Amino acid sequence: MILKDIQNIFHQELDTLYGADEVGSFFNILIDFYLGLNSITLVLEPNYAITKEEEQPLFEALSRLKLHEPIQYIIGETEFFGLPFKVNKNTLIPRPETEELVAWILKSVSEKKGQPINILDVGTGTGCIAISLAKHLPNAQVFAVDISPKALKTAKENAKLNEVSITFIEDSILDIHDDILESATGFFDVIVSNPPYVRDLEKVDIKNNVLQHEPHLALFVKDENPLVFYNAISSFATKALKENGLLFFEINQYLGAEMTALLKTYPFKDIELKNDMFGNQRMLKGMK
Question: What is the mean pLDDT of residues 200-218?
């Protein structure tokens, strides 16, 4: 079949769901992933034909896209902070806003680059935060905790893929049993977390590709206690951080004031609320 004809089918089937530009992007990602081709091929060779066997994964991907499945899950990978990451239904897909959080952490500890530094990532998921920090801070000892063994399996694969050493811990920050975490008094220089923070009442605003496919365990919290994870992590951090150690959060954009007030109660100092690239209050830092 002519590849250009398959591209036209993608647009006919998907443009009303995603828009022509995004569908074009999907198609380019898929032909690169499955066929090793780029969009220039369609320009230079408009009659480029592929075999039945080569068609199959493209049409399977089309069917999955029609069901709003994220393209990252379809190909099983994505990029974060310039690094490759495996993703699947057990892990959230890393977001660009979280890259900004990583950049903020690296800038905040820049004076310690080359020095030993202990970092904990709570709710690591794919491991994107922990692995990116480990990659850019080769002298750091990085720990990453998650309650999901399936997510940790993926995170370990990503650590191997990116050639970094991470200590992974299966535990819940709401009910700690792990010996490393229990004994971590004044141990960490940095604690960071991007925990579940989307309230149930906000589900109506969530796109189908997220709501129907990404793990709810890593996304949602009850309306009556939306800061449950932040409260537990902040409490843990008061013990586990070194003096002047830093606590970083990605937060719900609608709860910036509440999060600032929470950190003040522990109390943390030098609290800073930071906007993301879209102008939303999405990141928070405090010092012990």
Answer: 74
